[in-house]
């Protein structure tokens, strides 16, 4: 029997990805036409410009180039589809972000981007013709010697450079992040709303990056040019050289370079947008199945899939959707098994939702303890150092570690003396390493790469919090709906667990945001950081609204539940609308 992951990849993911790539290839035809129209722009002879353009569009070389570009586009987007993720990696330092690009998968994708960019730029030179068409040309009509065509080489190098820049932006600026839309719309409306913003973003990015290519070519362009000339037996032209200020002031070359950059990046960015729109579309999983082949392909199986996978995200997204908009599916979820009369469907869904909420709660609580323990601790003069104890009587690991490091080890005999020597050497090595790192961090350049990025730890925790947002919304909506729809009372029996889990997570997130000082909300210059941190505020607001939804549905009946004293106190503050 096929696993759920294998079935989803074959029956859902591949079809959605294929549809996205198909529409990208279809849109390549008008984009190529627009590129030729702008690249052959001739303001002094507009009639000849339009005539040449019309003849060029229907010519056989252009049609063959278009077919070749379509093939390259398909291969590129098939490879790119493996790089997208629902939870991007959050590096803690700038050095970690750079090392992230050195992974095998990233290096492979970077090579693909560079090669594909160079191939598309080479195809552009073939479609343009003229002085850009070939790598070589006759130095003199009277001789058989050939010279290197630097205009052709310049555009091909720019295509490679554009591919590398796209690769770095794909990972460092989280363009491989598949973010689910807050409101589900039809795909046609989502695509139509993204065409112009993606174009404007591409234009601005090409204008920003093209100046760096000009600087690099001015400084180092002669190195690959001379190497190619030497190994291909092509002479260097004495009439022009593009690694000079005068050579780079060619306005026509600048325009062709700009058009080529937009033509490379816009289909890529548009294809990535289509991929995200298709693969974040709502998918409905069955609650239960009567067929043996679909027994392991139900909603609960999707919720229990590998963490941080697209399949699990679609499962929680479907659960959140049915909790609000599907009476029949909610009824099936609240039903009892026959024979036996057990709420298996509800118990499984509840178990998975509480598990993901508890997982995030533990992570936030751990970070909160680290923040509190890293603060300065005042010791009264003359007081002996002793381990501190937590409320539940367990010794704090951090204070016990410092206690053991500072407590002298008393041993008897030569063997114990060796132990003391080894312990002393290890302590000296750790101290030397700590001092070395602290001294390196004092240097401005090294501190720039080794210094922790603002809110990096908080972003790393909450970057995958969309699952918890859906789980909280689904539980609260199902609980509220059960007041009228749950005829067997299966949800009400789980109400104390749901309320306790939500209140515990809400309390820890409030503590975390207070410790963070609201830095994420006030004027974030980095849009990526701001968008990542927005999830934690979304989760905070979702928790509060979900608790209010449950209280509004059940009213004062919640007080009759068996809740702890702390939970009852918090519930009363919500009932009085003081939160």
UniProtKB/TrEMBL annotation:
InterPro entries listed in its UniProt record: Nucleoporin_prot_Ndc1/Nup
GO cellular component: nuclear membrane; nuclear pore
PANTHER family given in the database record: NUCLEOPORIN NDC1 (PTHR13269)
The protein's name: Nucleoporin NDC1
Protein family according to the UniProt entry: Belongs to the NDC1 family.
GO biological process: mRNA transport; protein transport
Main location group: nucleus
Species this protein is from: Sinanodonta woodiana (Chinese pond mussel)
Membrane topology label: Multi-pass membrane protein
Entry-linked Pfam families: Ndc1_Nup (PF09531)
Protein localization: Nucleus membrane; Nucleus, Nuclear pore complex
Parts of the chain that traverse the membrane: 20-41, 53-79, 151-168, 195-220
Domain of life: Eukaryota
Keyword tags: Membrane, mRNA transport, Nuclear pore complex, Nucleus, Protein transport, Translocation, Transmembrane, Transmembrane helix, Transport
């Amino acid at each position: 029997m096929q696993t759920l992951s294998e079935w989803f990849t074959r029956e859902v993911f591949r079809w959605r990805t294929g549809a996205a790539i198909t529409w990208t290839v279809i849109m390549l035809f008008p984009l190529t036409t627009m590129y030729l129209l702008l690249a052959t722009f001739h303001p002094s002879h507009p009639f000849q410009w339009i005539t040449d353009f019309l003849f060029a569009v229907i010519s056989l070389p252009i049609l063959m180039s278009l077919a070749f570009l379509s093939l390259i586009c398909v291969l590129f987007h098939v490879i790119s589809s493996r790089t997208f993720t629902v939870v991007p990696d959050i590096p803690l330092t700038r050095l970690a972000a750079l090392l992230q690009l050195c992974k095998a998968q990233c290096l492979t994708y970077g090579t693909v981007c560079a090669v594909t960019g160079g191939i598309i730029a080479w195809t552009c030179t073939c479609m343009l013709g003229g002085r850009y068409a070939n790598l070589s040309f006759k130095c003199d009509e009277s001789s058989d010697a050939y010279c290197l065509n630097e205009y052709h080489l310049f555009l091909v190098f720019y295509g490679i450079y554009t591919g590398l820049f796209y690769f770095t932006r794909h990972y460092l600026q989280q363009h491989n992040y598949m973010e689910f839309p807050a409101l589900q719309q039809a795909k046609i409306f989502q695509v139509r709303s993204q065409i112009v913003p993606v174009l404007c973003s591409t234009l601005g990015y090409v204008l920003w990056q093209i100046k760096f290519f000009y600087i690099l070519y001015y400084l180092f362009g002669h190195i690959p040019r001379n190497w190619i000339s030497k190994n291909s037996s092509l002479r260097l032209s004495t009439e022009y050289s593009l690694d000079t200020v005068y050579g780079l002031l060619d306005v026509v070359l600048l325009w062709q370079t700009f058009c080529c950059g937009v033509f490379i990046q816009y289909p890529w960015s548009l294809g990535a947008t289509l991929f995200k729109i298709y693969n974040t579309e709502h998918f409905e999983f069955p609650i239960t199945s009567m067929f043996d082949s679909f027994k392991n392909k139900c909603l609960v199986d999707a919720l229990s899939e590998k963490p941080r996978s697209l399949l699990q995200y679609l499962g929680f997204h479907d659960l959140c959707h049915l909790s609000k908009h599907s009476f029949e599916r909610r009824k099936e979820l609240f039903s009892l098994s026959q024979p036996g009369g057990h709420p298996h469907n509800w118990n499984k869904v509840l178990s998975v939702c509480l598990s993901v909420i508890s997982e995030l709660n533990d992570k936030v609580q751990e970070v909160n303890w680290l923040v509190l323990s890293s603060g300065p601790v005042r010791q009264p003069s003359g007081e002996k150092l002793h381990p501190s104890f937590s409320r539940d009587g367990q010794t704090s690991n951090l204070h016990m570690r410092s206690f053991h490091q500072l407590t002298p080890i008393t041993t008897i005999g030569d063997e114990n003396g060796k132990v003391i020597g080894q312990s002393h050497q290890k302590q000296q090595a750790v101290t030397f390493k700590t001092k070395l790192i602290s001294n390196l961090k004092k240097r401005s350049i090294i501190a720039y790469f080794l210094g922790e990025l603002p809110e990096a730890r908080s972003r790393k925790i909450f970057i995958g919090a969309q699952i918890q947002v859906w789980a909280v919304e689904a539980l609260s909506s199902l609980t509220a709906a059960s007041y009228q729809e749950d005829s067997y009372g299966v949800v009400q029996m789980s109400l104390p667990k749901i309320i306790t889990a939500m209140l515990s997570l809400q309390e820890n997130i409030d503590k975390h945001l207070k410790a963070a000082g609201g830095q994420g909300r006030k004027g974030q210059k980095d849009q990526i950081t701001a968008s990542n941190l927005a999830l934690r505020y979304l989760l905070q607001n979702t928790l509060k609204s979900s608790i209010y939804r449950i209280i509004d549905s059940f009213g004062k009946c919640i007080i009759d539940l068996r809740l702890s004293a702390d939970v009852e106190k918090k519930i009363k503050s919500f009932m009085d609308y003081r939160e």
